[in-house]
Design brief:
Elements lengths: L1 E8 L3 H12 L4 E5 L10 E4 L2 E4 L5 E2 L4 H9 L5 E2 L6 E5 L6 E4 L4 E2 L2 E2 L5 H16 L15 H9 L1 H16 L8 H4 L1 H10 L2 H8 L9 E4 L4 H13 L3 E4 L3 E7 L2 E6 L3 E9 L3 H8 L12 E9 L11 E4 L7 E6 H4 L1 H4 L6 E8 L10 H12 L8 E9 L10 H9 L2 E3 L2 H4 L3 H24 L1
Parallel strand pairs: 1-2, 1-15, 2-12, 7-17, 15-21
Antiparallel strand pairs: 3-4, 5-11, 6-11, 7-8, 9-10, 13-14, 14-15, 16-19, 16-20, 17-18, 18-19
Helix pairs in contact: 1-9, 1-16, 3-5, 4-5, 7-8
The structure holds flavin-adenine dinucleotide.
Flavin-adenine dinucleotide (FAD) binds next to helix 1, strand 2, strand 5, strand 16 and helix 16.
């Protein structure tokens, strides 16, 4: 048995940030990661000597969380911006597909300006007029919030849901708009919409003038490097980081928590659970709680040898509407988006990432599949022989859900068990990192105030 001030369960970015900040603040920290490498959803893949992200590949610049972390921790990483191409949308049915740039000023697919040419191009003039009338509806209130799908369809019209919000929601958040509420998915937009009385007012308040997909940053060499550097920095400060060790159970005891793994029992004054939602639920709910099924998320990367893509026909990539007969919900033209990646590829070679609509549904396995899908989504004919390499990665626990309710969370806190990561902070590095840093700071300050008493 060994003991620590703090045990962190899960070595994704949240767990690594907490381990790093807490050890630097003087705590004795052990981090336990089930996989054989840290990073969680920050993962790298390689084609020969070309390394690239097969998990998260950017961060939203709406918070300075990533930049602050890199600066404070002194990590040798260079922040970069994506190329200016912006993202496109593919919508419609096979008979009449529309490929168009995503409207510039939209938030979660809700346009700020219904009369903008890029909005009318996607909705048509009738659809845009229906959207414009949203401002005249009775003021939106916070009471009885319906699902995002119902909210958008009833207020803005079915085309806004079908062509903009549903594709964005499914490709960015991996959830259908019918299964989520705006207040949880995008609290800032919800608050602005309630305060302005309409979704259009909310979008107007939150939209930026950036091209769709441009309000993000990246790291030269790939986002996976953030996890690798944090791991190294935390170890250098004295954190114990153990990979390949799965936590099986947490048992609160008098003044400490027992962290039970297959090999050992660790004891700590405080424990942070920084796993995905399903794993957190399995660790934190009473043993007789019903198990929730989770959907896997699959990302496929393909290296394509044809100079037809040198013109970047779809900018940084496409978001795919559910009505399009495609096995993918999004495609990123990765080297068109990231100049650092483009520089690593030989001339005429292009790297695509495809996010599967459903990890269990076939359609993105073979060179034939990949050539067909890339052709459909980009409008550029690709031959199966042009696909020179491909790889797929599955994420079994990437869909974000609150693992426990607020009451249980506060009981756990009292017992010394805290929650971090996307399951409580919301998906995305811009949310996860500041939340993890705040938690590390509060755990460290409690500890230092105790040691001075
Ligand atoms: C395909 C994909 C692309 C994404 N792209 C972006 C993007 O471009 N920009 C962005 O901001 N966000 C993106 N996200 C979201 C972002 O990656 C996540 O919100 C963030 O990385 C979550 O980090 P985390 O530390 O909370 O969880 P995770 O990264 O899921 O880490 C949890 C860790 O806990 C470990 N674990 C689980 N159970 C146990 C156990 N019992 N014992 C020990 N360890 C355990 C897991 O192995 C894992 O390493 C993307 C997500 C996916 C799936």
């Amino acid at each position: 048995m060994s003991s620590a001030d703090l045990v962190v369960v899960g070595g994704g970015v949240a767990g690594l940030v907490i381990a790093h900040d807490a050890v630097r603040a003087g705590l004795n920290v052990t981090l336990v990661e089930a996989a054989d490498r840290v990073g969680g959803l920050l993962q790298r893949a390689e084609f020969g000597d070309i390394a690239f992200d097969i998990g998260a590949e950017s961060f939203a610049t709406r918070t300075s969380g990533v930049a602050d972390l890199i600066a404070d921790a002194g990590l040798p990483l260079t922040l970069v911006s994506p190329a200016s191409g912006g993202a496109h949308l593919v919508t419609g049915a096979a008979s009449g597909m529309l490929r168009a740039p995503l409207p510039r000023r939209t938030v979660l697919g809700i346009p700020a300006d219904p009369s903008a040419a890029d909005v009318v191009r996607i909705l048509g003039s009738d659809g845009a007029a229906r959207l414009a009338a949203e401002r005249d509806l009775p003021a939106l209130t916070a009471a009885d919030e319906p699902s995002l799908a119902e909210l958008v369809a009833t207020r803005c019209g079915p085309l806004v849901l079908e062509r903009l919000v549903e594709p964005l929601c499914q490709s960015v958040y991996s959830q259908p708009a019918g299964a989520v509420r705006l207040s949880r998915l995008h609290p800032m937009l919800w608050r602005a919409a309630v305060s302005g009385g309409s979704l259009l007012a909310g979008a107007e308040a939150c939209a930026t003038d950036d091209r769709a997909g441009a309000a993000v940053g990246g790291i030269a060499g790939g986002m996976w490097r953030l996890a690798a550097e944090l791991d190294g920095a935390a170890r250098a400060q004295g954190a114990q980081i153990r990979t390949g060790v799965s936590v099986l159970r947490l048992t609160p005891e008098e003044g400490s928590v027992a962290v039970i793994t297959a090999e050992a029992v660790l004891r700590a004054e405080r424990v942070v659970v920084a796993t995905g939602s399903a794993a957190a639920r399995a660790l934190l709910e009473p043993a007789d709680a019903p198990l929730e099924s989770t959907r896997r998320v699959r990302v496929i990367a393909a290296l394509v040898d044809t100079s037809a893509f040198d013109v970047r026909p779809v900018g940084s990539g496409v978001i795919v509407a559910p009505t399009v007969p495609s096995a993918a919900k999004a495609l990123t033209h990765a080297n068109a988006k990231w100049p650092w990646l483009d520089e690593t590829l030989p001339p005429g070679r292009h790297l695509f990432r495809l996010s599967a609509r459903a990890a269990d549904t076939p359609g993105l396995e073979t060179p034939d599949d990949l050539a067909r899908e890339i052709t459909l989504l980009t409008g550029i004919a690709v031959d199966p022989g042009d696909i020179i390499a491909s790889t797929a990665t599955d994420y079994p626990d990437a869909v974000v859900r609150a693992p426990v309710d607020d009451l249980r969370r506060s009981e756990l806190r009292t017992a010394g068990i805290h929650l971090a990561g996307a399951s409580v902070a919301g998906a995305g590095l811009a949310s996860v990192i500041p939340h993890a840093r705040d938690l590390a700071a509060s755990l460290s300050s409690v500890s230092s105030s105790r040691s001075t008493v």
